[in-house]
Amino acid sequence: MKLILLGPPGAGKGTQARRLEEGRGLRQLSTGDMLRGEIASGSSLGRQAKAVMDAGHLVSDDIMIALIAHRIDQPDCARGFILDGFPRTVAQAEGLDGMLAAKGMHLDHVIELTVDEAILLDRIRTRVAESGGSVRADDNEEVLKNRLEVYRRQTAPIIPYYRDRGMLKTVDGMQPIDAVSTDIEAILDSELTQVG
Ligand code: AMP
Known about the structure:
This protein is an alpha/beta fold. It has one domain: P-loop containing nucleotide triphosphate hydrolases (Rossmann fold, 3-Layer(aba) Sandwich). The chain is 58% helix and 12% strand. The protein contains nine helices and five strands, in the order E-H-E-H-H-H-E-H-E-H-H-H-E-H. The protein has helices at residues 13-24, 31-41, 44-54, 61-71, 90-102, 117-130, 141-155, 158-164, 177-195, and strands at residues 2-6, 27-30, 81-84, 109-114, 168-172. Helix 2 crosses helix 3 (44-54) and helix 4 (61-71) runs parallel beside helix 5. Adenosine monophosphate (AMP) is lined by residues 9, 31-32, 35, 52-53, 56-59, 64, 85-86, 88, 92, 138, 147.
């Protein structure tokens, strides 16, 4: 099963992706985590990405598409994967479609976690406050506001991209974590019933 979880930073995509990884044996592919891994390893890609990420901007589409194309070929993705943080632009969504088609694959679900931005900013402030000083370099409030703006401008347009293709499902991401999980599971199970 191949899924995309969409939603602004702080919507809970990572939490839900990890639950699906544990519950269904799917592999969570967080492009943010992959890039942070590149930075930690000191690779040339990591060095290129660091300044861009620290400013809350997006790493180039070509780099991201190549990163994912390589990653989904690894054996641990054989049972399926959950894309968390990718695609972030319409160009990435188109690149993903082409890449999957070339591999004889297709997406099963695109699930958008919807949020209330005011509550989201509160959540993000709480997350930073609770991190006890171990905040990510890109996790200060100004950068996070910038990331929300980048999301609205560059990532939100992929929502109609998937809606127009009849693939988009939305879940209220402001519910408690368990309720969000229940809604996501219901989407995955209802589609299985229809297919089966
Ligand atoms: P995240 O952990 O998903 O919030 O990502 C952290 C940062 O990594 C983002 O603010 C971007 O700078 C970069 N990034 C992650 N995923 C992508 C992507 N699909 N396209 C471009 N940049 C990305």
